[in-house]
Amino acid sequence: MRRSSVSRRTVTLAVCGAVTAGLLAVAALAPLPISIVEPGLTANVLGADQGTQVITVSGTPVRKTSGQLRMVTIQATSPDASVHVTDVLKAWFKKDQAAMPRDSVYPSGGSVKEIEKANRKEMTDSQDAATTAALTHLGLSPSKVKVDLQLADVGGPSAGLLFALGIIDKINGDGHGGDLTGGRTIAGTGTIDASGKVGAVGGVPLKEQAARRDGATVFLVPRGECSDAKAELPDGLRLVPVNDLDGALAALAALDKGGKLPTC
Question: Does domain 40-75+109-257 have CATH number 3.30.230.10?
Answer without folding.
Answer: yes
